[in-house]
Design goal:
This protein is of the alpha/beta class. Helix content is 30%, strand content 22%.
Length: 280
Amino acid sequence: MIKAQNLSISVPELGPCTKKCPYCISKMTGAIRNPVTRYSRDQILNAIFFAKDAGAQSLLITGKGEPLQNLESVDDILRCNHYCNKSFANVELQTNGLWLQKPENLEHSIFASITNIAISVDSVKGLIRMAPVFNTLHDMGKVTRLTLNVTPMLQTTMGTFKSIIHYCIDSQINQLLMRKITKPAKKGHNTLQAKWIDKNKCAELYDSFNLGMHKALAESGVLLRSLNHGEGVWDYHGISCVAVDYCLQAKTQADETRSLILMEDGHVRTHWDYESSIIF
């Protein structure tokens, strides 16, 4: 029996992503063949039941694009989880945060069923733009995470780990995930996105951030726990800190996977970039 840490449900895309990241992982892994625009109730419930039986502890609402562009599908997922007899208590939304900038959008009914919100940011401008959003989400009682995609657009005022920590404290953020921008293992290496990653030396920038993080943690951090795939979760000045050197499913063992993924064709897989990882 396969074991999993979480269930990721990829919200079907209804249009181009609003952020258009130059390093977009989805562009490198390719489009899903025969995608749906909305999952059936059975597709969602079957994925939830299978994931719970596999030991998954959390539900991640994410996507190859921006999930909040398809609010009906997000609502479908949340309703199925709420009313089934194996529901997830920990429900996380992963987003670029742009839709959340309008205060009235934060009053939408979906937020009643979401416990954690992770916002991906890759630039100083993005950090400035998202600060009031993070503060509002904190006031709403949500656990917030800054997913920091380390790119050259962070250099200048936010080019060090400690400057990012100060930002997290000021924005009342609970968790910091520093993420290395990488290319898939065997796909997309000739795409414009892969060439952008190489040209902008994203790996070297991440290594510099990571070195600064671990120096700071050695001075005054506390190791809270180790994750199954090797990363440490640290407390630093009240912020939970993790750094990962991959963007996709990786470092899995023979009988264990980080995520089970319900993808836009209605099938559950263990890897974003391998169709052959299909389970059902």
